[in-house]
Amino acid sequence: MWRSVGVRVLRGGGAGQPRAASGAAAAQLRRRLENELEEIRGAGTWKNERVIASRQGPHLRLAGGGAGAYGEDGEGSRGLFMVRCFSFSFPVGILNFCANNYLGLSSHPEVIRAAVEALEKFGAGLSSVRFICGTQSIHKDLEEKIARFHQREDAILYASCFDANAGIFEALLTPEDAVLSDELNHASIIDGIRLCKANKYRYKHMDMQDLEAKLQDAQKHRLRLVATDGAFSMDGDIAPLKEICQLAQKYDALVFIDECHATGFLGPNGRGTDELLGVMDKVTIINSTLGKALGGAAGGYTTGPKPLIDLLRQRSRPYLFSNSLPPAVVGCASKALDLLMESNAIAQSMAAKTQRFRSKMTAAGFTISGKEHPICPVMLGDARLAAVMAEDMLNRGIYVIGFSYPVVPKGKARIRVQISAVHSDEDIDRCVEAFTEVGRKHGALP
Ligand code: PLP
């Protein structure tokens, strides 16, 4: 038996067991892959997946548990954790501070009920892409609701926001056009831009001088599109959209924002970064996800001008050539939007808890990057410190993630904490207390 982390590879292939392909090419491929995997381990960037045995929420139950257990194979596979490798022990029940479940809707009873009802009424799935036999009334209703939520003309659903980002630039931009992208934009924006034939400009992160210089250079092109994350998930910082929109106006450009870490909770009514910064009428295109604050199931969308959405239905490849969103997933997102449009109480509750965490941690002596955002990176600088502190937090039953180079710049290692509306004040306080103890123990605090 060959054994690699979290994956069991068996020779032979008895009944019900995987078979290893034979032949020189297959053997060569296996060697190459194993070398590459070894390099990833050697670089300390191996990512492992913790197995959760409960619903997503502030309190999780992990499968297995105890020293070094990881997964359910009963063979004591070693837990390799975060961006660095560690074996560790952890309690089975933990307090979770690292999901994008900002509004706590992933396990909201009404969201779950809506999914069950959609499943019962519309079935498991469509076995089709949208334009062949895959559009149900609930897809159209959800698209209409998304457009209304963002106060835009129309919306189009995708299987994910990754797909929405992969599908927009190629459909919209030609070699006559230009796209100007923040250097720290999400990987899916980067990939989407790679797929298009427009002229590409990368401006320094949130640097308006650099953006202006690039916009001046891009005047020679037919159309200019500035693309930015609304909120950046590594730092919890928010794009200077007001300034970006002013520059866009000055240089006759369009603005595109990815609102995955903003939709549902930023701004007075949770509409997102454009609402927070008072530029809802200046941003032309929004892409966002249904897989974070809006119920957390899956799915993404583009919302904006109707002719753009019509064009995407004709030309956007991830939309045209991928299955329709399953009804249960549509049901979840639709109910999440209903809840948010009824009241902003959930978003306000999350904002209050974020404020509680940020102010208590700052008072304890920690530096928290960004402001107002529920992504609260606890800045530690040293990669090893971030790793051992995150490990020690988990030993105390609190799940947070340490990030270090190459995920974030060298010398800027941090532990990322994400606050949810369903954390109680006691949960927040417990997390701060654990940070304070662990910080003192490892020298991050005096
Ligand atoms: N854009 C940003 C900024 C994200 O953080 C993510 C998810 O991590 C995505 C896009 C992709 O979203 P989805 O999970 O819906 O594919």
Automatic annotation (TrEMBL):
A biological-process GO annotation: L-threonine catabolic process
GO CC annotation: cytosol; mitochondrial matrix
Signal sequence range: none
GO molecular function: glycine C-acetyltransferase activity; pyridoxal phosphate binding
Enzyme class: transferase
InterPro entries: 2am3keto_CoA_ligase, Aminotrans_II_pyridoxalP_BS, Aminotransferase_I/II_large, AON_synthase_class-II, PyrdxlP-dep_Trfase, PyrdxlP-dep_Trfase_major, PyrdxlP-dep_Trfase_small
Aminotransferase class I/classII large domain mapped to chain residues: 94-435
Superkingdom of the source species: Eukaryota
Enzyme Commission no: 2.3.1.29
Co-factor(s): pyridoxal 5'-phosphate
Keyword set, alphabetical order: Acyltransferase, Pyridoxal phosphate, Transferase, Transit peptide
Catalytic activity, reaction form: glycine + acetyl-CoA = (2S)-2-amino-3-oxobutanoate + CoA
Keyword Transferase belongs to the record: yes
Family indicated by similarity: Belongs to the class-II pyridoxal-phosphate-dependent aminotransferase family.
Protein's name in the database: 2-amino-3-ketobutyrate coenzyme A ligase, mitochondrial
